[in-house]
Design brief:
alpha/beta, 60s Ribosomal Protein L30, Chain: A
């Protein structure tokens, strides 16, 4: 299917909009745990870390990771505090695999969709989430998006998965490696992306064509729906193309994070030259 020529953005869209709502309540602190999440947070200059906790056993590795940081970053970070494992269990939750290390952090700065569109190249991959609210799924999607070179993951701020330690642990560090952009209205954002030359491809199990038959070269936004309900009607209508994965067998469906990973691989395969 041929892609329509990109439309010129309106004056209002060129001006952009604030990345946060006036009068919005400031978000509180979060707790991150596990070496992958902590390591990426330490390296991310945009991440404000207000506390570092570790067990006696984990202290040598944390000290080594801190020593490897540039002085400018190391000087911004607090000194680690050694605590008992039970203290970390209580802080992170009984089922958290914290590996003896945790950090108290401030939420990452908000990123507006206009910030993303300012520096896109001829080829750019975005992931749009339509009411995907499970933090484990969103974390796994962030990890896949980062692995396959996506520029950002975009989700409505309403009914969004909280960026807690659970999401960060599932993302295995990707929360600090790729932008997670919260927007107000998904359909409006899709129009904005089309103005910027993006082709919005929605994954739908009832679509006639399969994803490997779609042209995914150039600027592509992969649109994923919630597990079970899939894409909402208005979201489907705003997609330029609907496609399905060529699954078969008695269990022919994948959860949303696995389906996203397969879709991102197909984009990477088509754009590898």
């Amino acid at each position: 299917m041929a892609k329509p020529p990109p439309r010129k953005p309106s004056a209002a869209r060129r001006r952009g909009k604030p990345s946060s709502k006036p009068g919005a309540k400031p978000r509180g602190r979060d707790i991150l745990w596990g070496w992958h999440a902590i390591a990426m947070a330490l390296q991310n200059d945009k991440r404000r870390i207000t506390g570092l906790l570790c067990t006696q056993r984990a202290e040598p590795e944390l000290s080594q990771r801190l020593d490897e940081l540039p002085d400018s970053r190391r000087n911004e970070l607090p000194e680690p505090k050694i605590v008992e494992k039970e203290a970390l269990d209580s802080l992170t939750g009984p089922e958290a695999v914290h590996q003896g290390v945790a950090a108290e952090v401030l939420p990452l700065p908000d990123v507006a969709i206009e910030d993303i569109l300012e520096d896109v190249g001829e080829r750019c991959l975005l992931v749009l989430l339509d009411q995907v609210t499970d933090p484990h799924n969103v974390g796994a999607i962030l990890r896949s998006a980062s692995a396959f070179g996506a520029r950002a993951v975009i989700a409505p701020d309403r009914n969004a998965a909280p960026t807690t330690g659970v999401l960060a642990k599932s993302a295995s560090g990707a929360l600090d490696a790729i932008d997670l952009v919260h927007i107000t209205n998904l359909s409006r954002t899709m129009e904005q992306l089309r103005d910027a030359g993006f082709w919005c491809v929605g994954l739908d199990g009832d679509a006639r064509g399969t994803l490997d038959g779609a042209d995914l070269k150039g600027r592509i936004a992969i649109v994923m729906g919630a597990e079970g309900s899939g894409l909402r009607r208005l979201t489907r209508e705003n997609c330029d193309l609907l496609a399905r994965l060529p699954t078969a067998g008695p269990v022919a469906t994948l959860n949303v994070s696995a389906a996203t990973a397969v879709s991102l691989y197909e984009y990477a395969r088509q754009n590898q030259d």
